[in-house]
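Example record

The entry below shows one chain as it appears in the dataset: sequence first, then structure tokens.
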Amino acid sequence: MNNVGGSSSTQEQLSEAVRKGTRVAAIGVVASAFLATTKIAAGVIGNSFALVADGVESVLDIFSGLLVWGGLRVSAVPQSERFPYGLGKAEPLASLVVSTVLLLAAAGIALGAAQEIRSPQEVPQSFTLIVLVGVLIAKELMFRLLSARARDIGSQSLNSDAWHHRSDALTSLAAFVGITVALTAGEGFESADDWAALVACIVITFNGVRLFRASLREVLDVTAPKEVRDRIREITESVPGVDGVDLLRVRQSGLALWVDIHVEVEGEMPVRAGHHIAHLVKDALLHSDLRILDALVHVEPHSLEPQPGPGPDSEPDPERRPGLEEHSGGR
């Protein structure tokens, strides 16, 4: 059995991914700080609660961005005696907090909008529309930048932060529509931007729940996507001496993967030769482009004869521990 620590190649890939992720997260924090100040000031001066609420959410974006930045950096800390599996879970945990903040923001905006609808209204100032157009463009650009980088490095927390910016863009769009209605329709439509904020909250809540579930699945060690598992099988079966893969388990820890794999080799092969093949499999996996932090490789004898199924008279296989059946799909 082969269970030595990860390779320098994987650590280099992980460090590069963290560098890319923290860079765009920092850009998002700076952009959110500027936009929050602009929106709150314009909303107060221009009498638009929807714009003020949008600005408050941008303040939360600052907190979320800093959390994502810190989570990415912590997740790349190498394994230690105290944390033998590293701190990769910091990344999906940061994503859980960000998605929770997103849900709380939606609830707060909905509550404020409902209170504004019940109170006397003044028509928002027309200049707030210009502010909203600029905010909408900036937030959509931030969403696209962070979303693309999240896909590039495989970061759930960065993806959550990207959708936080998209939620800002949605509330800005709703506020633009609402203020336009209030300005053009005149008396009786003063609260249109507040109703627009309520509609935006529905979309924000939907995305918040979706991101929370994705983050929670990663924290609970959901199996890796099928394409990743197929790629691992392909790499393993290309190693000379490997006759097949008997069992494969893959889980994600932050931006990296941990692999448990049982490979089949020729049944009469000496132990030393089987151990050598296990090292070859591990080296091939750790030096692949999948950012595999560590791989535990177990060698199984390959048999061409069909094995009898379990029955009342069958003897248990001493080499097989219970509960190690292969999973071909999600857990």
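Notes for this example: Confidence is low (pLDDT under 50) at residues 1-8, 311-331. The first strand starts at residue 244 and ends at 253.
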